[in-house]
Design a protein that fits this description.
- The chain has 244 residues and is mainly alpha-helical.
- The protein is 72% helix and 0% strand.
- It is built from 10 helices and no strands.
- It is elongated.
Amino acid sequence: GEEGEEEGEEGVKEKKEKKDKKEKKDKKDKKDKKGTKDKKEKKEKKEKKDVKEKEPDSDAESASDREVEELTYEDEDVQVIVNDITEFVKKAGSGLTPDKMFEEVRAQQVTKIFNNKVRMYIIVSALFPDGSMNAKSVAAKKAFLKKFIDNGSMSFADWIWGVQAYLDKQSGAVKAYPMSLKALYDEDLAQEKEILAYYKKDQEGPGFEAAKKAGAPFVKWLETTEDSDEDKSDDDSGSSSDSD
């Protein structure tokens, strides 16, 4: 029975070798799988990066390579920010300065990501809650409006967009808009030429139609004053009041 024993031993040996081979193979498979997984992850990361790098080209507005979608004025998040800033303005009361408000709004803008047009809508909404924008309140809050316009080096078309978006949400303020617009003009925030050029054309943006219609009497008045100014300044042209 020696042969049988040897065979038995050999069988055990073979089995062990098979087992060892299998374990090695399993380890190798696992390693390979991990390798392909790592490669796959790297590839995915790269693809994501590529997409990020490509996006700005497809987005005409994107001067800065922004990875986060900018909020639009219709977003619920923007309404939340409006409520926050309105509350901030209310709490600060007479102690509120343009700088303090700017810091507060800027902190939101950096974390939540929205452009300066939307920022203008937010501050107008917070400064004139419940449709309370009128000639008197515009004059009272002039320094705040000026701070945000100057800081963003905003064109009239860009910052008035924010005012009109406010009118779109606060229809109660539309009736007073001719006088509000006049106050913006009287306080040197808006120039005659800009107002006339802007409202002569059809513009994109929320609240434009309502603003154009409501503001028409003031715009007409500006046109007539411009005409009489031109008559007067034929001899001394060049002395237009462009001083800030």
